[in-house]
Amino acid sequence: MRERLYRIDLYGIPRFAAERDGRLCLIDGDVFGEFALGEEVARGRVPNELPAGVGPLAAGDVVEVRVEGVGELSNLVQGERSPA
Prior knowledge:
Blueprint: E1 4-10, E2 13-20, E3 23-29, E4 35-43, E5 62-67, E6 71-76
Antiparallel strand pairs: 1-2, 2-3, 3-4, 5-6
């Protein structure tokens, strides 16, 4: 199953979350690789009930991750790929 990914501000801390079955859950793991759904932060008609300025990632968006002591990673979001 494909999840729709969001960048959210949770209590002043930027986080990634995923939508599945009308639930918005924090992402545990690597947003660019393997991850699991963590704590639920919203339920209902996602994204209609999300705060202003929060929305799904779209082609052309840039996702940046900074890990203290490790460095920074930046990734350009691309459109969905067609099955080969």
